[in-house]
Amino acid sequence: MKIMVAIKRVVDYAVKIRVKPDKTGVETNNVKMSMNPFCEIALEEALRIREAGLASEVVAVSMGPAQCVDTLRTGLAMGADRGIHVESTTGLNPLNVAKIFTRLVELEKPGLIFLGKQAIDDDCNQTGQMVAGLLRWPQATFASKVVLDKEKQVATVEREVDGGLETLSLDLPAVITTDLRLNQPRYATLPNIMKAKSKVIKKYTPQELNVDIRSDFEVVQVTEPAKRKAGVIVSSVDELIDKLKNEAHAI
Amino acid sequence: ASTLILAEHENGSIKAQTLSAVVAAKSLSEENSVSLLLAGSGRSLKEAAKHAASCHPSVLIADSDKFEYPIAEPWAKLVQMVQQSGGYSHIVSASSSFGKSILPRAAALLDVSPITDVIEISGSSQFVRPIYAGNALCAVRYTGANPCMLSIRSTSFPVPPSSADSKSNEAPISEVDLSTLDEDYLGKTRYVGHTSQDVERPDLGSARIVVTGGRGLKSAENFKMIEKLAEKLGAAVGATRAAVDAGFVPNDLQVGQTGKIVAPELYLAFGVSGAIQHIAGMRDSKVIVAVNKDADAPIFQVADYGLVGDLFEVIPELTEKLPEKK
């Protein structure tokens, strides 16, 4: 069985986000870019399944500008077998990404797809559900535990839902989106980084895959949220309790 | 305008976050006919439908054992069917784990792009949503075909206390024709079960008070002090990524950009330096308290009340002196 994993290149989670002065977006020039943390978790899970002998190959897919190849190389250094880069200089919204991904699924025929539950840039939390919908495949979002039964071709997935955990059993092929506590992703080691340089990355364009890129909305403006102003420094626990009780009415 | 709302119900009542979705829908346009779509089976669906009818313009119910559990495949298919017959201009759900799972799938079936986590509505096609974990706000104009699909943050659309229980004008309840629902792919997901994580403590995402510990706690053993304080306040426990990475607590307690985003009434941070990605997860809290021995820690820049001091003295003193939860 082949596993496909979607990987997004985003502004690194530790970078301070700066809104551009002309309010057209967020500054991404000269900013550290990394693999979306939820995609790292998705890839890690796929690698563990392959290492447990339950899958034969892990294919990492990234979409966007030329630099996405760097993010794919990171994925290959973590252990993915090969990469696919769908190059696009125009921005892709989740529906575009889902359509492109669906075409790749038709070509690659994986038995399982992992995606991060959301990207930490646009915070959309849509792509996995859309891929599953377009393919008419079962879906389990926000996975915190995945157990595969290779013989029965079933994935049992524990999901983080509001106020608890839900368990679903899915017939394969299926789409799973990953939440934070599913695993702790590995770091790429130097030998693996070297090895990753010779792994294959296949290139496509959306046009080659017959997907029309369409946008359903326009960005009017991007602004900074209202700043919190620093409050007061209290000198003792008693003063703190007094303020919380009588000024903030929080306790 | 006409709006379809994906309703969530439990024990025969409509959930509060669905009522927030109704509030949001009403702000889309002055003349907006709002319909609530409820699915489920049996008695609890009937009771929920009655509850819905007592406070809303019209109610659609889909009664089938396929909807006994909130499984995305039949639900998304249902939304597609109801949209095809009803031709709504908008479809709205709460940004709950239910809404987040179903809305995008249904949107893909309808070939439109949904808008996630709307916090502000200006007219029927302009919306504000947080991006980069709330570090920026993005105003978007929807230019696509109908329906315009939105998930809304329920904390941004509070329900006025009176609207929930007015018994006048009972709305009509109609049943959705489910004869075309049968497709074999819908049976490929089975519900196994549900467990509540920790019944003693409130859920981190919806707690009124959150007590968070950072690297300053130094060990898993010391972290118990945070738990003890949380217990006394009836609060949820949170942690920073640093505390999780150091192995003090499991990572489901992580508050931050890659963890949980919280906005409680009161947020107490102990030994938290205030990394950008942590602030992103708690900046919308109403009152923030920070205790840290480093007076220059960035957390103090966002705290309403700061106390520079030794955690290992402050936490026990606070635990002793704070009043018991009500």
UniProtKB/TrEMBL annotation, chain A:
Pfam families in the cross-refs: ETF
All residue ranges annotated as the Electron transfer flavoprotein alpha/beta-subunit N-terminal domain in the record: 23-213
SMART domains: ETF
Keywords in alphabetical order: Electron transport, Mitochondrion, Transport
Location within or outside the cell: Mitochondrion matrix
Source superkingdom: Eukaryota
PROSITE patterns linked: ETF_BETA
Family: Belongs to the ETF beta-subunit/FixA family.
Function: The electron transfer flavoprotein serves as a specific electron acceptor for several dehydrogenases, including five acyl-CoA dehydrogenases, glutaryl-CoA and sarcosine dehydrogenase. It transfers the electrons to the main mitochondrial respiratory chain via ETF-ubiquinone oxidoreductase (ETF dehydrogenase).
Subunit structure: Heterodimer of an alpha and a beta subunit.
Protein's UniProt name: Electron transfer flavoprotein subunit beta
Organism: Xanthoceras sorbifolium
